[in-house]
Design brief:
The structure holds 2 protein chains of 2 kinds. Chain A is mainly alpha-helical. Chain A is 81% helix and 0% strand. Chain A has one domain: MetI-like (MetI-like fold). Chain B is an alpha+beta fold. In chain B, 25% of the residues lie in helices and 34% in strands. The chains are: A mainly alpha, B alpha+beta. Chains A and B meet through helix 7 and helix 8 of A and strand 6, helix 2 and helix 10 of B.
Chain lengths: 271, 389
């Protein structure tokens, strides 16, 4: 089965990787360019990064993004964990349709989610007199992150031996203690993965933020979008590079963790 | 006679309208080794889970030391359970697994001190012969070692009763025999009441003080291993415990039973005149003699070598008997048999009559199926367990 790819296979693979990553590569390279030119390489410099970090609006956007991402991922992870355990304790007659419903928002077009959340917040806002802003942005991010957290945790729950909870109760745990001392440690890898995924998605999001943040605050992706409309500046390259790198690092962490867990599982089952 | 510890009074249980326990009345004595024995789906695991507090009976009461405990949750019962697949906590090491229950306990509102926990855990490790295993990862232990950790984890809490749900089911034959002795030894050393669930009749006979034979959610017989084997109450018990030939008979008077038109003397009585009965004859109680000298004559149709004994199937008037003998008789040989009066056991007719005891379809394959290790007890979450796999 482990046949080595032939010439054609390798060629095909290179083309795909090239088309996928060439634009990003160009972007990264030119973020270090010493002049404004986006076509001619004139020398290495960190000028654009320096300007980036001295630009007040960009730094504001950066802090907003970071705070929203941290809060949204933590809140979504908490709600998602509780929801996943709730799904898990349901009879399958209910669980199957409800997990499907959980999956729908992930398939849904961001623009639809964004517009509908925006409509909801605006109409609620007129009733309860609040405006679009940080609160609604955070709520929106929590909302779209939850399904992913549930999805990250469910497989871990399915691996748990149901007798473990019974055993914990048998040894003197109340249900809450069993949840804390047995279920949580067992699904911890799933929870952490869910947290990282939620964080990544939150940093990444443009469309939903655009519709729910209101006029006064901006996230980094929104800032980039605004900058491209105002003037074309290599600062965007630098900013995009930073964004790309941070998402890349998080994804690598998730994958490395997955591989390690699989190895551990294989080690266990082989005994 | 030691005192009564647990009583189930008219307990019934049903899942989705289907009864798995029907009006069970049963009591458990202090310090005894009691086995709930029966085939898959007979209600034995359900009974155990009711005692453990994981299930609530839909009717009837559960008493512990005279106190009704129907509504007492598992963590407040002086009962600990050993689960089918041990259910050790994979994220904790051997020491932490065993200490799990102790760390939760409060005596007069105070936690048990670290030194006492450590002492008691080490003492348990000694009892289950796992000295020096404290720091090991439980997921990397062998089946037998995991089993011992599970036993230690339950016993360290000093429960009054230990519930064991087919604890040896996942072990191989040799280890299983060792662990049987080990469990019996631990039970005697600690003086804790063991309630043991199994479908393995040999295991039940070897370990128990009392055996409760269950089928269809009902208790078929309660007794010592000797009682159950020698004096089975009905055809189901006779067939489930050991090998037995179960025949139709007619009781003529106390001590005289007619089988195949011939009168045999036996030791049982108390039946109506000419009452139809089930007659149990164990394969080892049949003496083979010359065909001319026997009370019945038949033809050998198959032979299986079992080590010490041969199992031979003999055709008497179209009904196949299983006979165990140390001598070899070739297939086709005509033989006669004699049965001593104490080898004949008479039972009242029951709903199980006619279902068991004929060896026409005898084969090794059938033997293996009947010893299958799979257990499909109806449990509350049966549908969940299914879609997990």
């Amino acid at each position: 089965m482990n046949k080595k790819p032939g010439f054609f296979g390798r060629f095909y693979m290179s083309i795909i990787l090239f088309f996928l990553y060439a634009p990003i590569f160009v972007l990264i390279v030119f973020s270090f360019n010493s002049t404004r030119s986006r076509t001619v390489w004139t020398g290495f410099s960190l000028e654009w990064y320096r300007r980036l970090f001295s630009d007040g609006t960009i730094l504001d956007a950066f802090y907003t993004t970071l705070i929203v991402a941290v809060l949204a991922s933590v809140i979504a992870t908490f709600i998602g964990t509780v929801a996943a355990v709730g799904f898990f304790n349901m009879r399958s007659r209910w669980r199957t349709p409800l997990t499907q419903i959980n999956n729908i928002p992930m398939m849904n077009a961001d623009i639809v989610t964004g517009v509908s959340l925006s409509l909801l917040f605006v109409s609620l806002g007129t009733m309860l007199s609040f405006r679009l802003g940080f609160g609604t942005l955070l709520l929106a991010h929590v909302t779209f992150c939850i399904p992913y957290v549930v999805l990250a945790i469910m497989p871990k729950l399915r691996q748990i031996d149901r007798n473990l909870v019974d055993a914990a109760c048998d040894l003197g745990c109340t249900w809450m203690q069993a949840f804390r001392k047995v279920i949580i440690p067992e699904i911890r890898p799933g929870i952490i993965n869910g947290l990282i995924i939620a964080f990544t998605l939150s940093i990444d999001d443009f469309v939903i933020s655009y519709f729910t943040a209101g006029g006064n605050i901006m996230t980094l992706p929104m800032q980039i979008f605004a900058m491209t409309r105002r003037r074309v500046s290599p600062e965007i390259n630098a900013l995009s590079t930073i964004l790309f790198m941070s998402v890349l690092i998080l994804l690598i962490i998730i994958n490395v963790r997955d591989i390690k867990q699989e190895e551990k599982l294989r080690q266990r089952t082989s005994v | 006679m030691s005192k009564e510890l647990i009583r189930l009074s008219k307990c019934s249980m049903a899942f989705d309208g289907e009864y798995v326990l029907k009006d069970i009345d049963l009591y458990f004595k202090d310090k005894e080794f009691l086995t709930l024995l029966g085939p898959s789906g007979c209600g034995k695991t359900t009974t155990l889970r009711i005692i453990g507090g994981f299930l609530k009976p839909i009717s009837g009461d559960v008493y512990f030391d005279g106190v009704r405990i129907n509504d007492v949750p598992p963590h407040k019962r002086a009962v600990n359970t050993i689960f089918q697949k041990y259910a050790l906590f994979p994220h904790l090491n051997v020491f932490e697994n065993i200490a799990f229950g102790l760390k939760l306990q409060r005596q007069n509102g105070k936690k048990i001190s670290k030194t006492e926990i450590s002492e008691r855990v080490l003492e348990m490790l000694d009892i289950v012969s796992l000295k020096g295993f404290e720091k090991r990862d439980v997921t990397l232990l062998s089946g037998g070692q995991q089993q011992r950790v599970a036993i230690a984890r339950a016993l360290v809490n000093r429960p009054k009763v230990l519930l064991l749900d087919e604890p040896l089911g996942a072990l191989d034959m040799r280890l299983r025999k060792d662990m049987q002795n080990e469990l019996k030894r631990i039970q005697q050393a600690t003086g804790i009441t063991f309630i043991y669930v199994t479908h393995d009749q040999e295991e039940a006979l070897a370990m128990s003080d009392t055996i409760v034979v269950m089928e269809n959610g009902e208790i078929q017989q309660i007794g010592t291993p000797e009682d159950i084997y020698n004096e089975p109450k009905n055809a189901f018990v006779a067939d489930f415990i050991g090998e037995s030939n179960i025949l139709d008979g007619i009781m003529h008077q106390d001590g005289v039973v007619e089988i195949f038109g011939r009168k045999f003397s036996c030791l049982d009585g108390g039946f109506a005149k000419l009452e139809p009965v089930d007659v149990v004859i164990r394969p080892e109680d049949i003496d083979i003699v010359d065909s001319s000298a026997g009370m019945l004559r038949g033809t050998v149709t198959s032979i299986t070598f079992r080590g010490v004994l041969y199992d031979i199937i003999v055709d008497f008037h179209g009904f196949k008997w299983l006979i165990q003998t140390t001598e070899l008789y070739p297939v086709g040989a005509d033989i006669g048999i004699n049965i001593d009066p104490d080898g004949i056991h008479i039972m009242k007719k029951s709903s199980f009559s006619g279902m068991f005891g004929d060896y026409s379809s005898f084969s090794d394959e059938y033997e293996n199926i009947s010893d299958a290790e799979f257990e499909f007890e109806p449990m509350e979450d049966v549908e969940r367990t299914e879609d997990r796999g």
